[in-house]
TrEMBL record:
Any Pfam family the entry gives: Inositol_P
Name of the protein in question: inositol-phosphate phosphatase
Catalysed reaction, written as an equation: a myo-inositol phosphate + H2O = myo-inositol + phosphate
Keywords (A to Z) from UniProt: Magnesium, Metal-binding
EC number: 3.1.3.25
Entry-linked Gene3D superfamilies: 3.40.190.80, Fructose-1,6-Bisphosphatase, subunit A, domain 1
Species lineage: Bacteria, Bacillati, Actinomycetota, Actinomycetes, Pseudonocardiales
């Protein structure tokens, strides 16, 4: 199945952002990401599951580190940006966040089950979001000693080095998928028929980031929260990847289902998804 898409045709131009705010937000977010990377590196997998508790399932963990990092993030942001509310995974949304011109969105440890197990695939994610989507996105990837940072109109950098994706076909590439069991098997089967590999590694933020870095041709996600993906979608968009919803409509921050793909791979990946 080939689905012809023109991802920029209906995408509204993003709202302008004051340059000083962009620069300051990038600086503060980068500082917080470095702080988080140090904490995660020092504590991942230590004492096994001590200090960790389940949320809704045995694979949905919350740890002391989640709470500590989110509290630290909120304290710093309240001091540096007192008029901007914060939405976080562990402590919810500040009053007025839904209608505010800007909001910070933080996931202190994305991939907590991996973190608890000492599996090197978890991240800290922070984004500044407005009505047009992510304005600034920063991801700390502690296991690879990398900080990825992007701002609207300024591109994306990995440890200070500019990154840009190149168009490529899906064939021979990898797709990072975070899907429900009911959709995963069929999607993987269709991808395999297209000679494309699937990787399921347990962090939505890092799944999308692999597309921004050019390591994967696409990421396909469903059932995520805004804090899981906001920072990484900023990276992807600024690196030149395409971000669409499950129907292929351009959306800088889709809800429910998201496909992020390098140019040249979207039609194939979207076809595998929409085939059911």
């Amino acid at each position: 199945m080939t689905v012809q898409q023109h991802p920029t045709a209906s995408a509204a131009p993003p709202l302008p952002v004051e340059p000083g705010l962009l620069s300051r937000a990038l600086e503060v977010a980068g500082r917080l990401a470095n702080d988080a990377a140090e904490v995660i590196t020092a504590t991942a997998g230590r004492d096994h599951q001590d200090g960790a508790a389940h949320k809704e399932s045995p694979f949905d963990w919350v740890t002391d580190t989640d709470h500590t990092l989110e509290r630290h993030t909120r304290r710093v942001l309240a001091s540096e940006f007192p008029g901007i509310p914060v939405v976080g995974e562990e402590f919810g949304a500040d009053a007025g966040a839904a209608g505010a011109p800007y909001r910070w969105v933080v996931d202190p440890v994305d991939g907590t089950a991996n973190y608890v197990a000492g599996f090197p695939w978890c991240a800290y994610s922070l984004a500044l979001v407005d009505a047009s989507g992510p304005v600034v996105g920063v991801i700390a990837d502690p296991s690879r000693a990398q900080i990825y940072a992007a701002a609207r109109g300024r591109g994306v950098r990995a440890n200070g080095v500019a990154v840009r994706v190149a168009p490529r076909a899906s064939t021979g590439g990898l797709v990072c998928a975070e899907l429900s069991p009911g959709r995963a098997a069929g999607f993987a089967r269709r991808a395999a028929a297209g000679h494309t590999g699937i990787r399921v590694l347990g962090s939505s933020a890092l799944a999308i980031t692999q597309v921004a870095l050019g390591h994967a041709v696409a990421a396909v996600l469903e059932g995520y929260q805004e804090w899981d993906v906001a920072g990484a979608t900023c990276l992807a968009a600024e690196a030149g990847a395409l971000v669409v919803d499950g129907a292929g409509r351009p959306d800088p921050l889709p809800t429910g289902t998201m496909i992020v793909a390098v140019p040249g791979a979207l039609d194939d990946v979207l076809g595998w998804w929409t085939a059911g």
